[in-house]
């Protein structure tokens, strides 16, 4: 059964108030994940007063659904970057990521943050002969870019390894505890933090911005959308591929490999990320992988099952204790988008991190703060959110958008009689067409039927049922909704419309 992420279990607690009434600050930051808090930290260092809001609890977004690894390389590997760009760009990306990494490490040391931070090595290996060349290529690119990479086989790793490379001086931690502690450290007169406060509208006027929230309005000169992907409709969304990926944490009977980040390629390039985590006398094996486009898996559950099968095949798994899903946004040209929403705007975004956003999130804090304060930053252009890279982005841009177009055109067969509702069993969800309305209908484990409009309010795509996380997921731009239509994540600002049955008629109502 799907549970919480391991980081949510081994977390501390935060108890920030809900916003009540109208407030003002220099900068309003929407999102209390690693990006929002890193930005708050840099801004207050530079003398700004900020307000951070999160619609749920601090750190409860993707930051606490990651693997918790810190490395200077990238998930899509450096050789893909090198084939799109050149060695200079690869070096720049590594240097920028080193700075993001160092910011996290310094915080942990300076504030004595208890988040299981451990320095370790990063390994990339081929689990079969077919992926051997990938490692050779990566090794070459890493060395060319100045990284101290070498051929070393991981020891005590009970999976087949045909070729491996290692980079020392990387690290891992519990990202939830880090983000929670950072919020506690920053909270004060210059950084007011509010939880359970959802931004419902962001307006930009000539001399200020206004963030409307469920608790009051925030007036600020600048707004930072640190929401993992920006809210509402923006051009940048056509450059992002939203993916869902899964993690499991297991208790194992045998010894585990040393602390380390282990990325292995298997059949057809399938990549699994393996690490261990120790806390309060317990040791867990974590396996993360099996990504798919959001809202487009036939059976989401088959993805967590595959992780479990992989873990059981190679380790003496006694129990799978936690299972979770997380979202990431792959950028069309392999680099994140960090900076102004568009030229001249006072609204800032940070997205397209792929699964490298703990380090990119820390880096985004400095990039955005420098841009707000008009300070030079050597990586400003490289990651600029308004950059135009048609040649670099074209292939991915076209394939992602053809995929989105297909989701719009998909004909979802519907049935309209009450038997269709009765046929839905606890834990199941289906799209039912009635009176010309597409309905997202599911039955919770307590046998209650939940009905909402199946049309995603972001850009009118039809949502799909996620049978692992029991949510409605939009296959176009990755918005996700709970069974009562509430926004879980993604670009949608508003819940799925409410459905009202009046006699035989169906009506759908907007909800704020
Ligand atoms: C499976 C997986 C594994 C990963 N592993 C790693 C890894 O090992 N290393 C690494 O560097 N990266 C990893 N990542 C990527 C990394 O976790 C993310 O890129 C990073 O956490 C993003 O941080 P963020 O602060 O931008 O977003 P989030 O942590 O998602 O924070 C955004 C916050 O905004 C809030 N919010 C959203 N909308 C609103 C609203 N309307 N009003 C108010 N608040 C709102 C949310 O509640 C949330 O708390 C992984 C990702 C996945 C999916």
Automatic annotation (TrEMBL):
One Pfam family, short name please?
Answer: Rieske
Q: Does the keyword Transmembrane helix apply?
A: no
Q: Does the keyword Protein biosynthesis apply?
A: no
Entry's InterPro entries? FAD-dep_OxRdtase (IPR006076), FAD/NAD-bd_sf (IPR036188), Rieske_2Fe-2S (IPR017941), Rieske_2Fe-2S_sf (IPR036922), Rieske_Fe-S_prot_C (IPR005805), YhfW_C (IPR038010)
The protein's superkingdom reads Bacteria
UniProtKB keywords: 2Fe-2S, Disulfide bond, Iron, Iron-sulfur, Metal-binding
**Domain named Rieske: which ranges?**
416-496
Q: Which PANTHER family match?
A: SARCOSINE DEHYDROGENASE-RELATED (PTHR13847)
Q: What is this protein called?
A: FAD-dependent oxidoreductase
Recorded source organism is Fulvivirga kasyanovii
């Amino acid at each position: 059964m799907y549970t919480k992420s391991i980081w949510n279990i081994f977390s501390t607690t935060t108890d920030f108030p809900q916003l009540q009434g109208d407030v003002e600050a220099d900068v309003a930051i929407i999102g209390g994940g690693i990006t929002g808090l890193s930005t708050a930290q840099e801004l207050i260092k530079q003398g700004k007063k900020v307000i951070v809001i999160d619609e749920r609890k601090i750190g409860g977004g993707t930051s606490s659904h990651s693997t918790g690894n810190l490395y200077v390389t990238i998930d899509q590997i450096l050789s893909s970057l090198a084939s799109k760009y050149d060695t200079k760009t690869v070096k720049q990306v590594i240097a920028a990521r080193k700075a993001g990494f160092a910011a996290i490490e310094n915080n942990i040391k300076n504030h004595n943050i208890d988040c299981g931070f451990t320095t370790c090595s990063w390994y990339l290996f081929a689990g079969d002969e077919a992926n051997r060349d990938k490692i050779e290529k990566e090794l070459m690119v890493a060395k060319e870019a100045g990284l101290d990479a070498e051929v070393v086989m991981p020891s005590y790793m009970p999976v087949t390894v045909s070729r491996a490379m290692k980079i020392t001086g990387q690290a891992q931690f519990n990202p939830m505890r880090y983000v929670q502690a950072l919020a506690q450290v920053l909270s004060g007169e210059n950084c007011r933090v509010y939880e359970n406060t959802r931004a419902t509208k962001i307006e930009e006027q000539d001399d200020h911005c206004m963030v409307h929230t469920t608790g009051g309005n925030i007036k600020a000169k600048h707004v930072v959308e640190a929401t993992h992907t920006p809210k509402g409709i923006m051009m940048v969304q056509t450059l992002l591929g939203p993916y869902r990926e899964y993690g499991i944490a297991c208790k194992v009977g045998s010894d585990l490999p040393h602390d380390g980040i282990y990325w292995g390629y298997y059949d057809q390039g399938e990549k699994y990320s393996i690490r261990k985590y120790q806390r309060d006398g317990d040791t867990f094996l974590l396996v993360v992988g099996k990504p798919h486009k959001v809202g487009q898996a036939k059976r989401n559950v088959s993805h967590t099952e595959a992780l479990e099968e992989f873990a059981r095949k190679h380790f003496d798994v006694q129990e799978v204790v936690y299972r979770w899903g997380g979202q990431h946004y792959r950028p069309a040209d392999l680099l994140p988008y960090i900076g102004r929403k568009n030229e001249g705007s006072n609204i800032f975004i940070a997205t397209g991190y792929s699964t490298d956003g703990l380090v990119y999130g820390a880096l985004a804090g400095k990039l955005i703060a420098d841009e707000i304060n008009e300070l030079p930053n050597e990586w400003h252009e490289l990651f600029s959110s308004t950059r135009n890279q048609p040649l670099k982005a074209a292939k991915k841009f076209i394939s992602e958008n053809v995929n989105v177009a297909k989701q719009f055109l998909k004909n979802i067969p519907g049935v309209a009689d009450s038997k269709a509702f009765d046929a839905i069993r606890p834990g199941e969800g289906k799209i039912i067409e009635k009176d010309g309305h597409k309905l997202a209908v599911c039955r919770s484990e307590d046998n209650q039927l939940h009905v909402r409009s199946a049309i995603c309010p972001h850009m009118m795509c039809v949502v799909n049922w996620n049978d692992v996380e029991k949510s409605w997921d939009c296959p176009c731009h990755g918005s996700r909704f709970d069974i009562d239509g509430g926004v879980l994540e993604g670009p949608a600002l508003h819940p799925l419309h409410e459905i009202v049955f009046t006699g035989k008629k169906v009506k759908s109502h907007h909800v704020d």
